[in-house]
Design brief:
Elements (H helix, E strand, L loop, with lengths): L2 E3 L5 E3 L15 E5 L3 E5 L2 H7 L2 H5 L8 H4 L8 H14 L4 H9 L10 H5 L8 H4 L1 H6 L3 H6 L26 H13 L5 H9 L1 E4 L2 E4 L2 H19 L2 H19 L12 H9 L4 H7 L7 E4 L6 E3 L9 E4 L2 E4 H4 L1 H14 L3 E6 L3
Antiparallel strand pairs: 1-2, 1-3, 3-4, 5-6, 7-11, 8-11, 9-10
Helix pairs in contact: 4-5, 4-10, 12-17, 13-15
């Protein structure tokens, strides 16, 4: 697990947040990150932000939501990911403000992460956290922490204003790269050596991230599709998300769970959900299990569901300018288009519970 290291002999898990605040002159923090190795933090504003309740909460919000809670995927937290995005921006030469934007880019993720998009029927865009980012930030302790160091929190509201942090899909950006590399390592899809090689070929031109090697671009494009199939748009994972969403929606309808509960942590909200006596909630929760099986069955589906599909089309540096991989490699362009075509639309899932 990634850890934060401060004064000699003191270590903290990323997942539990940061323990104390110190000034730059008194303190240096080192993150031993599984993707990038050592990342150092010396800026006082970063210490201030890492000590806020809002950032600490991300240590209890899991990237994969429900599948991590039931032991299918690794319990990687939004805080680990956010620190990773910050570290990658730092590695690529991004300034302090861009690093702040990286650290805060997922600040408004709810408990269960993208499962909540299924609850509120926004699973194709997966933008529930973005829709609520301004109100969540405004009511948090982030604005005061930033103000102490001369920053207006509104300047960090839209991560797309920071080109290294966020780019429209399918371009590379620090957010997209970090969750891809981090999840691919966790899933055993890539080796540390492959990650190291990919990082060595990243370039920045005109504020955008690309690569300086065509083979690396192909590896990124193809492996990203593999990761999408294995996890983010995986048949079982999407089915479990929908089941969890059905239970959460029912709990919200009967008042057993409130929207305020969604702004706690996964384990807090999960415990409250599991304690709900409603038979419908409990029957659905019993299916949120590694033992449950999912089948494609258009004749007798339990439900139809769709999800966001994720691919990248990396920029490649050719003769002093960026060109998309799909422009340089027609075979990759065809593979990517076929993948998106084959997975688009609603899927008929039949759910079979196993005891």
């Amino acid at each position: 697990m990634d850890q934060l290291q401060g004064m000699p002999g003191e270590m903290w898990d990323v997942a539990s947040g940061v323990k104390a605040l110190y000034t730059c002159a008194m303190y240096k923090m080192r993150i031993n990150d599984q993707v990038y190795g050592p990342i150092e933090i010396i800026q006082p504003v970063m210490f201030e932000l890492l000590g806020t309740r809002a950032v600490k909460r991300l240590g209890g919000v899991l990237q994969h939501g429900i599948t991590a809670l039931v032991g299918i995927t690794r319990a990687t937290s939004r805080l680990e990911h956010s620190l990773g995005v910050m570290g990658l921006v730092q590695r690529l030469g991004g300034g302090l403000e861009e690093q702040i934007a990286a650290l805060l880019h997922d600040i408004s993720h709810t408990a269960f992460s993208h499962v909540i998009d299924y609850v509120f029927q926004s699973h194709d865009s997966q933008g529930y956290h973005e829709e609520h980012k301004e109100s969540h930030l405004a009511s948090s302790d982030i604005p005061a922490a930033l103000a102490q160091h001369g920053y207006n929190w509104l300047a960090f509201l839209h991560e797309e204003d920071f080109s290294l942090v966020e780019q429209p899909a399918p371009a590379l950006c620090a957010d997209r790269l970090d969750y891809f590399l981090r999840d691919s390592l966790d899933l055993g899809l890539v080796s540390p050596e492959q990650v190291k090689s990919a990082l060595a070929h990243l370039t920045v031109f005109d504020g955008r991230i690309g690569v300086d090697d065509l083979n690396t671009a192909r590896w990124l494009g193809d492996t990203f599709i593999t990761a999408d199939q294995a996890s983010w748009a995986n048949f079982r994972e999407v089915g479990l998300y929908e089941l969890a969403a059905i239970a959460i929606r029912r709990a919200l309808e009967i008042g057993a769970l409130s929207e305020a509960d969604l702004w706690t942590t996964d384990r807090e909200a999960w415990a409250k959900l599991q304690g709900c006596p409603d038979p419908q909630v409990q029957e659905t929760l019993s299916l949120v299990s590694p033992k449950t099986e999912f089948y494609w069955d258009a004749d007798n589906p339990t439900f139809w569901v769709s999800t966001k599909l994720r691919t990248v089309d990396p920029d490649v540096m050719i003769n002093g300018e960026y060109r998309r991989l799909s422009e340089l490699d027609a075979d990759f362009a065809s593979r990517r288009e076929e993948y998106l075509r084959s997975k688009s639309g609603k899927w008929p899932l039949r759910v079979v519970g196993r005891r």
